Each structure stands twice: as structure tokens, then as C-alpha cells.
């Protein structure tokens, strides 16, 4: 049985009280993971047909489609945090390579929507699906409660990062350190 961390107080029946203290070891582990992922992406660039932004764009399009939402170029630009010029290049490249098509917006004929193709939706037998499978295999053995908690923490961390304004990063820090 693992030792009880000092910041976790037993509450009975094997449960631990939630700590009011920050958990730097979680942030460190996440930084270790993101560094490993970035290094893996650099190693795989020569064999993967899509770049990181391409993959993020396709994931966004597929998520929107599953949710029943339509995606316009501006939506994609905002979601990815890229300029409209970069978005146009991205869309042109994905359309040219058969990953998406442009269609007339059913609610506004002046607008164009982006629709992922079957090629974008088809599970790949290439390196990207191998990487996905390796990551999925690493989650084997987690119970539902553990998996749910990990997902909650990762999403909370993602929201925290998404909420950081670039201007705030240049302001002097007060207090703490």
C-alpha cells in the first residue's frame, strides 16, 4: 500500500480529503509528458503526412461534426489561435490533400463551411494511429474513478492555460516568489 502523502488526510473508508494546497508534482508530470510528446512529434515529422496544426484542425473539425456544429474558417482560426492568412493556407492544404471540402453554409449562402472528408475520419493505419494506440495502452489498468479524475484535472489545466492572456505574461509578478 502506498504511503499517504502529507497533504492528504484520511477521511475514512480509504478516501482522502482534497488538499487545499497546489500540487506541483502534477504540473511537473504534465510538463514531462508534453516535452515527451513534442520530442516524439519532432521525430515523427518525416513520416507523418500531416503537421501538428493540420492534426489539430482536423480534430476540431471532427469534434464539431460529431457535436452537430458547423465550422467556418473564422471558427477554425479562433480555435487554433492562428491568423486568417494562416487559416486560409491550412484550409487550402487540407482541401488539396483530400481531408476536407468547402461547402455552402446551409444557413447563410454567402458563407462557406468546412466539412471533414471520409479520409479525415478514416482510422489511419499509419504512425499517428500507432502513437494513439501506444498512449491508449498506457491507460490500461485505471479504474473509472481514476480515469474520470485524471480527465477532470487535465481539462482544468487546459482551461487554465487557455485562460492566460499573452499580455499577462509580460506583467510583473506580484507576491508569491
From TrEMBL:
Domain of life: Bacteria
Protein name: MarR family winged helix-turn-helix transcriptional regulator
Basic and acidic residues bias spans: 14-23
Region (Disordered): 1-23
Species of the source: Arthrobacter halodurans
Sequence ranges assigned to domain HTH marR-type in this UniProt record: 23-159
InterPro entries noted in UniProt: HTH_MarR-typ, MarR/SlyA-like, WH-like_DNA-bd_sf, WH_DNA-bd_sf
Amino acid at each position: 500500500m502506498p504511503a499517504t502523502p502529507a497533504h492528504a488526510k484520511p477521511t475514512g473508508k480509504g478516501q482522502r480529503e482534497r488538499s487545499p494546497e497546489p500540487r506541483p508534482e502534477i504540473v511537473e508530470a504534465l510538463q514531462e509528458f508534453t516535452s515527451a510528446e513534442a520530442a516524439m512529434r519532432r521525430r515523427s515529422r518525416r513520416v507523418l503526412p500531416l503537421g501538428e496544426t493540420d492534426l489539430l484542425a482536423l480534430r476540431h473539425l471532427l469534434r464539431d461534426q460529431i457535436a452537430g456544429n458547423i465550422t467556418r474558417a473564422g471558427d477554425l482560426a479562433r480555435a487554433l489561435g492562428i491568423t486568417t492568412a494562416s487559416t486560409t493556407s491550412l484550409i487550402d492544404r487540407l482541401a488539396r490533400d483530400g481531408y476536407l471540402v468547402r461547402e455552402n453554409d446551409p444557413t447563410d449562402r454567402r458563407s462557406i463551411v468546412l466539412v471533414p472528408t471520409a479520409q479525415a475520419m478514416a482510422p489511419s493505419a499509419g504512425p499517428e494511429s500507432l502513437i494513439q494506440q501506444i498512449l491508449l495502452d498506457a491507460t490500461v489498468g485505471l479504474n473509472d474513478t481514476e480515469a474520470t479524475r485524471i480527465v477532470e484535472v487535465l481539462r482544468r489545466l487546459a482551461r487554465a492555460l487557455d485562460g492566460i492572456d499573452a499580455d499577462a505574461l509580460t506583467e510583473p509578478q506580484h507576491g508569491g516568489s
